[in-house]
Recover the amino acids of this structure.
């Protein structure tokens, strides 16, 4: 557990350093703030994560669908980790509405950082609407071969 926290703290330091890099493009700040927020949330720094997510929202948003998908995914994961279920589901709805989201509904369902959303019927419904198998429990191998949706 201690080693994991050290790794997260190092990731946070490295990502924060990227914000100050001289070649940092303004349009990618939203993604960096979202990544910082997720790390802060995983470290239990709820207030800091909330502020970083707000900075991510206020920063210029990416114009390409690929970059926007990454941003929405980071934001949703951070929001889920700090208990902002409504906002997290909204971001996932936007992500899945993209023409070719880089991760499918089943991938989102099994994402451990979105675990806090799995008991929410809106999340279950959203994943099922997009072809995800919500009968799978990522922690129970006996459910992995279930074909029902």
């Amino acid at each position: 557990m201690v080693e994991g926290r050290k790794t997260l703290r190092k990731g946070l330091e490295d990502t924060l350093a990227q914000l100050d890099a001289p070649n940092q493009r303004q349009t990618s700040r939203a993604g960096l703030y979202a990544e910082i927020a997720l790390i802060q949330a995983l470290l239990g720094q709820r207030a800091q994560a909330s502020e970083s997510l707000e900075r991510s929202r206020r920063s210029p948003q990416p114009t390409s669908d690929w970059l926007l998908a990454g941003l929405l995914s980071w934001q949703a994961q951070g929001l889920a980790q700090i208990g902002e279920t409504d906002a997290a589901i909204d971001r996932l709805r936007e992500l899945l509405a993209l023409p070719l989201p880089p991760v499918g509904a089943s991938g989102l369902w099994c994402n451990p950082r979105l675990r806090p959303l799995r008991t929410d019927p809106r999340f279950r419904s959203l994943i099922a609407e997009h072809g995800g198998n919500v009968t799978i429990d990522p922690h129970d191998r006996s459910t992995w071969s279930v074909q029902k949706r």
Observations:
- The chain has one domain: 2-143.
